[in-house]
Amino acid sequence: MADLWDDHDNYWRQNYANRPYASGRSYDDLRGGYRYGYENAERHRGRSWDDVERDLSTDWDRYEHRGQSTWENVKDAVRDAWARMTTGTASYDAHSSSTGSSGTTTLGTGANSSSRTTY
Question: Which domain holds residue 18?
Answer without folding.
Answer: 2-112
